[in-house]
Amino acid sequence: MNWLLPEYIADALPAEAARIERLRRTVLDHFRERGFELVMPPMLEYLESLLTGAGQDLHLRTFKLVDQLSGRTMGVRADITPQAARIDAHLLNHQGVTRLCYCDSVLHTLPATISAGREPLQIGAELYGYEGIEADLSIIRLMAGALEKIKLPMSRIDLGHVGIFRALAEAAGLPQEAEESLLLLLQTKDVPGLIDACAEVPSPYREALQRLPALYGGVEVLDRATAELPALPAISAALEGLRHLIASAPELPFSVDLSDLRGYHYHNGVVFAAYCPDYPAAIALGGRYDGAGKAFGRARPATGFSMDLREVARLVPAMKSQGAVLAPCAPQDRLLAAHIAALREQGETVVELLPNETACEGPLCDRKLAKVGERWIIEAIQED
């Protein structure tokens, strides 16, 4: 019988698993060094908890099942961010700033992109309790530093602000159905469809909504947006916040996309997406989602980012793996046992052969322990 995994679900074999684990340790250490504390939420929760507040957009992506103990509907998490918001608001109950990070598998009913899997290994960081734009800048720098640590170059960081579209929709008096329709058209950058859908929207909001897909490019886009969009207070504040971010981090490759509205229903401020060369999709996503903890007892300012380590591992330059040392089967040789222990203390991988085992199938052994006189020495393994 052929044992097949479900579509878009895959094993991680030793080489890939080792690469993912190295990246996990590197990124989590990067977070820890900056004061972000690791949390480990459960894989399953009651559905209303997973889909409350920050999680409303996840309804269609969440696997659902019935809890045999309580009879209530449970969900397999599709995103760890709502769980982190619950931990901050309901369990930690800090009054000041809280910095949390996480790394674990999530499960999606459908892949997010054609190249993505349905079991991402989500790693990310969240900052709670600070309203200012400085928190968004801190998270963006944390993301950029993590990508630099794992040697994954960024081609650009797209900045947007969901408050701009929200302000236009509110000022134009759009009903919920029309707002959702325009949101979808903007996300797909369907300009002809957008023009048709805006036919009944009053001026100047009709023209502003139609201009959003074109407000994309370098930082000069913010000046164009100031000139072309209505001078609503929320729009002016959003554009000023984006200017502040760009001016505060001139070392980062910022670009602007004012029609990037991913996560619109829970983001309420700055949003950003990091891209790397020769890869079409965003490699890391983040943004501000104030108030996500309201359903758990406290509405706290919040901003954060996450990425899929499985996807990242495919893009990171391969590192030459350190070969292992092959040790013969000699269970009674105390000198050999001491030598093996010393090598392992030094960080070497040593594979001890079992009785009648003649070779190691993996990991790759490029050296071996050989006895010369009364001493054990390391020799290179000569390829045949």
TrEMBL record:
One of its GO terms (molecular function) is glycosyltransferase activity. L-histidine binds at D79, I80, T81, Q122, E126, R262. It is found in: Cytoplasm. GO terms for biological process: L-histidine biosynthetic process. The keyword Cytoplasm applies. Keywords: Amino-acid biosynthesis, Cytoplasm, Glycosyltransferase, Histidine biosynthesis, Transferase. Pfam families: tRNA-synt_His (PF13393). CDD domains: HisRS-like_core. It comes from the Bacteria. Pathway: Amino-acid biosynthesis; L-histidine biosynthesis; L-histidine from 5-phospho-alpha-D-ribose 1-diphosphate: step 1/9. Its main location: cytoplasm. GO terms for cellular component: cytoplasm. The keyword Cytoplasm applies. Residues 8-312 form the Class II Histidinyl-tRNA synthetase (HisRS)-like catalytic core domain. This function is generally fulfilled by the C-terminal part of HisG, which is missing in some bacteria such as this one. Required for the first step of histidine biosynthesis. May allow the feedback regulation of ATP phosphoribosyltransferase activity by histidine. Heteromultimer composed of HisG and HisZ subunits. Belongs to the class-II aminoacyl-tRNA synthetase family. HisZ subfamily. PANTHER family: HISTIDINE--TRNA LIGASE, HISTIDYL-TRNA SYNTHETASE. NCBIfam families: PRK12292.1-1, PRK12421.1. This is ATP phosphoribosyltransferase regulatory subunit. It comes from Candidatus Dechloromonas phosphorivorans.
